[in-house]
Amino acid sequence: MSLMKRPHSIALGLVLVALSSAVAVAEVASDDPAAPGQGVDRVTQIEEPAREALGVLREARGGDDSMPADAAAAFTERASFGMNPALSRLAIANLRNSIFVVPARGHTCASMLSGAGAVMQCPKTSDISAGRAGASTAMIDGTAIAIWGVVRDGIESIELRIGGEIQAVEPQANVYLAIVPAGSPLESVSYVGPSGRVTYPIYDPSKVFDSEAQH
Amino acid sequence: MRVYGRLAVALVLALAAVGSGAPSASALESYYYCSLKPVGSWCDGKANGTYDGLNGWDYTEAWYPGDWDNTVTACEHVINPSNGTEIGGGGNCDLNWTSHYYGAISGSYEAEVRQYSGGPHTIYGYANSSF
Residue A147 to residues A21, A23, A137, B4, B93: CA-CA distances in angstroms? Predict the structure, then answer.
């Protein structure tokens, strides 16, 4: 090969590298419509309003309080609301669906283990303090629905309305959890706190085919 | 022979470059945003997403971008559109914001978000295949 031809082959390679890099950038380019809680500094200690509202966060952290490593790593990487799984506390120990309270900045998150992963909720700490935090619902193995949430100290009973019937649930360590069969006609969660009685609707996540995806 | 050698090097470079730019399960993010979506209607990754397609989504979020006055519930799930199979045992919902880490997922799935409230509301979502 002559000296004149060598640059051509190198240039060809470089052009293709540049083109493929442009494609890769286009695929991962972020057009983030202000995902909430992003860019918030990670908390390094539990914020005082959260400690005041939740007794579970005033307890010393022990070995059982750690979330599974892969879930903790994922939520640490995303770091929504500055959450810090390294400060988590185990609230409900359950064979398959344990729930951890995870401190964040201005929010107090809670994560329920589910299968190989975990579902996360992050109500504002001010809403928890005021007794105005709602409930999460999550499918479990396609056969049951978990209904769970975080409440401040002093809230002793949660009322779930399902199919016209009231089911009372007692929080443990500031967290309540009820597991009902899939297809249960969920209606609402209700409790009495500093803001008086609050009632929030709850929804069945399994209603996958109620409507087709619309673009 | 030397010409073929140079061409071979260039070809290897080109193939490596193309390979690095191909969609992979370890490098994709998608944002979904649907304005004034009717109650209960899924908003999927084809709605202005940065990656328009199926993937093995490891992590998703759904949220209501308006004031968090506890009137809008956000839901999300990840589903194989060809057979209806959901990963992680199914979806999840909460007031304002919810997220789900599924583990290391491979395969072709669609992440979708929806909202429940008293009427049409904007709903946003996010999916990441690299967690």
Answer: 45, 42, 5, 66, 10
Q: Does A27 touch chain B (CB under 8 A)?
A: yes
User: What digits encode the pLDDT tens for the residues A167-187?
Assistant: 999 999 999 999 999 999 999
User: Closest to B98 (Cβ–Cβ): which among A17, A121, A202?
Assistant: A121
Beta bridge partners of B92: A138, B76
Write down the pTM of the prediction. 0.82
Tokens for B76, please give them.
């999300």
For the CA atoms of chain B, what is the radius of gyration?
Answer: 19
Kindly list the residues from chain A whose CB atom is less than 8 angstroms away from the CB atom of residue B48: 31
Contacts of B37 in chain A (CB under 8 A): 214
Mean pLDDT of A14-35: 44
- Measured in Å, how far apart are chain B's first and last C-alpha atoms? 46
CA neighbor of A54 nearest in space, from A91, A79, A86: A91
Of A21, A33, A142, the CB nearest to B31: A33
Asked if the C-beta of A116 comes within 8 angstroms of chain B's C-beta atoms, the answer is yes
Determine the pLDDT at residue B44: 80
Best mutation target among B57, B75, B96, B99 (most A Cβ atoms within 10 Å) is: B99
Distance from CA of B9 to the nearest CA of A (A): 8
Backbone angles phi, psi at B30, to 5 degrees: -145, 140
Per DSSP bridges, beta strands B73-79 and B29-37 are unpaired
Q: What is the ipTM of this complex?
A: 0.83
> CA-CA distance, A41 to A79, in Å (whole number)?
8
Question: Using alpha carbons only, what angle is made at residue B64 by residues B61 and B66, rounded to the nearest 5 degrees?
Answer: 145
Residue A203, pLDDT above cutoff 50: yes
Rounded Cα gap, residues A199 and A187, in angstroms:
10
Residue A157 CA to residue B114 CA, distance in Å, equals 30
Chain B residue numbers with beta carbons less than 8 Å from the beta carbon of A116 are 88, 102-104
